[in-house]
Design brief:
Blueprint lengths: L16 H9 L3 H19 L2 H6 L2 H18 L9 H27 L25 H18 L4 H12 L4 H8 L3 H27 L8
Helix pairs in contact: 1-2, 2-4, 2-5, 4-5, 4-6, 4-9, 6-9, 7-9, 8-9
Length: 220
């Protein structure tokens, strides 16, 4: 476990990530924690990217990347060697973060910097995710994972937390617009976002027990 804290090298390259992900899909909380600790350097590297920092901010980078990493673990069915998984994860997480930037760009093009959302969906009911022009395999994988797992997990959230996640990730509003819509401060929106993402991670882990134990690849 201490190996995950090794300096001057990406410790994930030497860790049994395939084993941890397989155990995590079957509900092994300890394996999920080991996985999360060992991918932390990857997430930290995105938090230092000047472009992403400027467009998304550190908190949103960490939240979006962490959720995408858990989705990857939950649905992964490949046979990539352990030492190559960190490189695959980097591509998947970067794709997810760039999608967030593109969604923001799309919103600005359609509404303008001062435009208001025309979405009439109830803030407590998840809307369909915004269209994304990125058609790479990683993008399609993440989109499917969100629709199949995150939508269900959203139903377990308190109303206000669900409204925040729906606004930020599905309706492509920024934190200021979300705060104005809900009637709270931007800081409180970020607090609700962190709480909601924590609940979603726990829910996804519980789903791993009920949804993955009967999957064909777990019976081989």
């Amino acid at each position: 476990m201490n190996a995950c804290n090794a300096k001057n090298k990406d410790a994930t390259e030497e860790q049994p990530l395939n084993e941890w992900m397989a155990r995590g899909r079957q509900g092994d909380t300890q394996a999920v924690l080991l996985y999360c600790r060992c991918i932390e350097p990857i997430i930290d590297s995105f938090c230092k990217d000047p472009f992403l920092l400027h467009r998304l901010g550190r908190d949103e980078i960490r939240s979006a990347a962490s959720l995408a990493a858990l989705e990857f673990m939950s649905d992964y069915t490949g046979a990539t060697p352990d030492r190559e998984i960190p490189y695959l994860l980097r591509r998947v997480l970067r794709c997810s973060l760039l999608q967030a930037v593109r969604r923001d760009d799309t919103r600005l093009r359609h509404e303008g910097p001062n435009g208001s959302s025309t979405d009439t969906t109830d803030g407590n009911a998840p809307a369909e995710p915004a269209d994304d022009p990125d058609k790479t395999p990683e993008a399609l994988f993440l989109r499917a994972a969100r629709r199949q797992q995150v939508q269900a997990a959203l139903q377990t959230l308190p109303d206000r937390e669900r409204a925040v996640i729906n606004a930020l990730y599905f309706r492509c509003l920024d934190t200021l617009e979300t705060a104005q819509e809900i009637g709270v401060t931007r800081n409180y929106v970020q607090k609700l976002q962190r709480r909601a993402l924590t609940r979603l991670r726990k829910c996804l882990r519980r789903q791993a027990i009920t949804e993955k134990e009967d999957a064909p690849w777990n019976r081989i």
